[in-house]
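hiii so um. not sure if this is the right channel but i have a protein structure encoded as tokens and i wanna go backwards to a sequence. like what aa goes where. can anyone help
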């Protein structure tokens, strides 16, 4: 998983990227990433505008994770809603790198093959991953909902997202793709 730092001051962004690459052992994305390119985005709370927050929420909906470095203990509800994780600027470096690594690991990847070769990656949320695993075992939406502790409508939404992300038109195609991915 790539990491991208967002900060209006290049020296801060470069310093964080250097720390992430050297001490965290994570890949830092070079240049600009498209909003749909999966990555863990790091943003600094003291520099976030309303436009930045809207962009971070859009990035999260596209499958990326967002970690916000926050100054102090208080955090606006807007910033909290835009973040998957928050780390205080006064936190130890290891805490920051640990949360960053955990976010990267939480973005599940399924390798899918179209003709037995040429794997590509699809990023799934943890709920989509769980729903896919139950589906691959032959569970119905009702059984998946009971096992996951959510509504049947939520499961239908996960299935719709899975079909969209994996390029399937129906549940049978989805099941076939998932069975080839394992």
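sure thing!! here u go:
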């Amino acid at each position: 998983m790539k990491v991208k730092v967002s900060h209006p001051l290049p020296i801060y962004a470069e310093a964080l990227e250097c720390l992430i690459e050297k001490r965290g052992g994570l890949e830092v994305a070079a240049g600009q990433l498209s909003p749909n390119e999966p990555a863990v985005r790091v943003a600094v709370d003291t520099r976030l505008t309303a436009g930045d927050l809207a962009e971070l929420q859009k990035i999260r909906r596209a499958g990326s994770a967002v970690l916000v470095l926050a100054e102090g203990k208080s955090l606006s509800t807007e910033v909290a809603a835009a973040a998957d994780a928050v780390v205080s600027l006064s936190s130890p470096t290891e805490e920051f790198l640990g949360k960053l690594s955990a976010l990267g690991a939480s973005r599940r990847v399924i390798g899918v093959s179209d003709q037995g070769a040429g794997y590509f990656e699809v990023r799934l949320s943890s709920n989509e991953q769980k729903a896919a695993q139950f589906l691959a075992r032959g569970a119905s939406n009702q059984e998946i909902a009971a096992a996951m502790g959510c509504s049947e409508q939520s499961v239908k939404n996960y299935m719709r997202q899975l079909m969209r992300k994996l390029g399937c038109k129906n549940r049978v195609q989805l099941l076939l793709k998932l069975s080839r991915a394992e």
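oh and The beta strands are 2-6, 27-28, 40-44, 65-70, 85-88, 108-112, 120-124.
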